[in-house]
């Protein structure tokens, strides 16, 4: 009579296992891919809207006012249409990105506490590990890629969608 063995153990030989250098390279590539997706400068921030473009609200207002009000109504519409741009407009248009804010802070506080001089002592507690799928504390590590997971359900999700998908 043959002894029974777990399917997980039987399939362990078939799995691809990465060494530490490959895991670090994979993590670096994943971080670079995330950085590519991060906020970038808006390429359309400096575009100026043409004044020749018809505004749909103006067309509706002029069509209704042309019927019987005469010249007095059209001067009121021009006054309403002429508005100065508020502070929110300029705040949004000339918004500073993170490197610009860092440079400004470095100039304002060259020796004082700033982003570059801030530091903290190492923690006296052990490092905490979190599940790569759901974010809960994890106790287990994927044998193939070294990613952390917390339960069988998260392991299944990890194997189906994440494990070794973005290796270089």
UniProtKB/TrEMBL annotation:
What keywords sit in the KW lines? Metal-binding, Zinc, Zinc-finger
Q: Where is the signal peptide?
A: none
Q: Where is the composition biased (Basic and acidic residues)?
A: 1-22, 29-45
Q: Outline the segment boundaries, as ranges, of region: Disordered.
A: 1-88
Domain of life, source organism = Eukaryota
Keyword Amino-acid biosynthesis: yes or no? no
For the biological process aspect of GO, one term held by this record is: chromatin remodeling
Asked if the Swiss-Prot or TrEMBL record annotates the protein with the keyword Zinc, the reply is yes
Gene Ontology MF: a single term: zinc ion binding
Pfam family name, one: zf-HIT
Which InterPro entries does its entry note?
Vps71/ZNHIT1, Znf_HIT
- Tell me which GO cellular component terms the UniProt record holds: nucleus
Stored CDD domains = zf-HIT_ZNHIT1_like (cd21437)
- This protein is called what? Uncharacterized protein
């Amino acid at each position: 009579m043959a002894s029974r063995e777990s399917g997980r153990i039987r399939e362990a030989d078939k799995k691809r296992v990465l060494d530490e250098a490959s895991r670090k390279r994979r993590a670096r590539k994943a971080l670079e891919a995330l950085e590519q997706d991060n906020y970038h400068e808006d390429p359309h921030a400096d575009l100026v809207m043409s004044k020749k473009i018809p505004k749909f609200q103006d067309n509706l207002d002029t069509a209704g006012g042309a019927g019987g009000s005469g010249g007095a109504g059209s001067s009121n519409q021009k006054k309403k249409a002429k508005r100065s741009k508020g502070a929110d407009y300029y705040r949004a248009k000339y918004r500073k990105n993170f490197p610009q804010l860092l440079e400004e802070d470095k100039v304002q506080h060259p020796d004082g506490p700033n982003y570059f001089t801030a530091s903290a002592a190492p923690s006296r507690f052990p490092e905490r590990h979190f599940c790569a799928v759901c974010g809960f504390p994890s106790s287990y590590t994927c044998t193939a890629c070294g990613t952390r997971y917390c339960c069988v359900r998260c392991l299944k999700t990890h194997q189906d969608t994440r494990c070794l998908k973005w290796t270089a």
